[in-house]
Amino acid sequence: MKKFRVAVIGTGFIGNIHCEQLMRISNVMLAGIADKNPALASEAAARFGAEKIYKNADEVLSDGTIDVIHNCTPNNLHYEINKRALESGKQVFSEKPLALTAKESSELVKLAEKENAVTGINFCYRYYPVVQEAAVRVAGGEIGAVYNIHGNYLQDWLLYPTDYSWRLDPSMAGASNIVGDLGSHWCDLAQFVSGLKIIEVMAELKTILPVRKRPKTKETLTFSNASDIDYEDVKISLDEYGALLLRFDNGACGTFTTSQLAAGRKCNIDLQVYGSKGSVAWNHERSAELWFGHRNEPNRIFFESPNIQSPETRRFARLPSGHPMGYMDAIMNLFNDFYRAIELKRANKTPDFRHPDFKAGHEEMLILEAAIRSRKSGTWAKVDTV
Ligand SMILES: NC(=O)c1ccc[n+]([C@@H]2O[C@H](COP(=O)([O-])OP(=O)(O)OC[C@H]3O[C@@H](n4cnc5c(N)ncnc54)[C@H](O)[C@@H]3O)[C@@H](O)[C@H]2O)c1
Question: Which CATH number is 126-324+363-382 given?
Answer without folding.
Answer: 3.30.360.10
